[in-house]
Amino acid sequence: MRLSELRAQLREQLAGGESPALDADVLLCHVLNKPRSFLLAWPEFEVSAGQKAELAELIRRRQQGEPVAHLTGQREFWSLMLEVSPDTLIPRPDTEVLVESALERLPERPARVVDLGTGTGAIALSIKCERPDDIVMAVEFNPQAAALARRNAERLELDLEVRQGSWFEPLAGLTCDMIVSNPPYIDAADPHLAQGDVRFEPLSALVADDQGLADIRHIAEQAPLHLLAGGWLLVEHGWQQGEAVQSVFTDNGFEQVTTLRDYGGQDRVTLGQWPGRKHA
């Protein structure tokens, strides 16, 4: 079968999904081991029977809702191709807003940055890629996810130290210029947990108590013990949580507290600056 014909067939089979054309192309490129430009440049390319059979199985799994990133085992983020697995969240484009905001606020000198709940390592590795002289550390509670972040760092040849543990526990006595995090922030009763890709992602990386604010509150309370004067805290959160997260930040002494919007115009990242060391 010619590539153009198969491409049209796959799009029809995935019709009704969120992005049938994109999903079809990503799966085609994965099976053919070719860039997307190949699909446009070589419409007459003959796809082998073995490749068609592999695609048929991937399409079947996608029709059942399995995320494309899990089918291919990878997802691009900040121009970095990352290995992904069911042990972590799938990196999403809106999280790049957090990376952009972090890069804008880091000092010109080499800095120390900590990423809490790193998952695939997407945020930490993106910062390290742009600022190779910075010391970037990542913390991850799930040992399988921590191992995945280390593999991504090694494959990308980026010097990232990954410590396994819960939030600040592996950071005793350490201070830094910036703390970033995409923590769990979804309420356990949120109906969206039964929809889309999140059905296949670990609940421990999605759900938090206190209407989704428990982990964000913990981070904001403990961050001042690890931030240098003038350091920044940035966290990703749900689109309806901006005002609540701002209150958490200001209640814990942060200044210049601001909520930034994602590419869809929704509240997504709140940040604040620590003015000085917290007194006992």
UniProtKB/TrEMBL annotation:
Binding site for S-adenosyl-L-methionine: G117, T118, G119, T120, G121, E140, W167, N182
Stored Gene3D superfamilies: DNA helicase RuvA subunit, C-terminal domain (1.10.8.10), Vaccinia Virus protein VP39 (3.40.50.150)
GO MF term list: peptide chain release factor N(5)-glutamine methyltransferase activity
Example of a GO biological process term: methylation
Listed Pfam families: MTS (PF05175), PrmC_N (PF17827)
Coiled coil: none
Residue numbers binding substrate: N182, P183, P184, Y185
Alphabetized UniProt keyword annotations: Methyltransferase, S-adenosyl-L-methionine, Transferase
Keyword Transmembrane part of the UniProt annotation: no
Domain Release factor glutamine methyltransferase N-terminal, first and last residues per copy: 5-73
Similarity-based family: Belongs to the protein N5-glutamine methyltransferase family. PrmC subfamily.
UniProt xrefs under HAMAP family: RF_methyltr_PrmC (MF_02126)
Function (record text): Methylates the class 1 translation termination release factors RF1/PrfA and RF2/PrfB on the glutamine residue of the universally conserved GGQ motif.
PANTHER family named among the record's database cross-references: HEMK METHYLTRANSFERASE, MTRF1L RELEASE FACTOR GLUTAMINE METHYLTRANSFERASE
The protein's name: Release factor glutamine methyltransferase
Gene designation: prmC
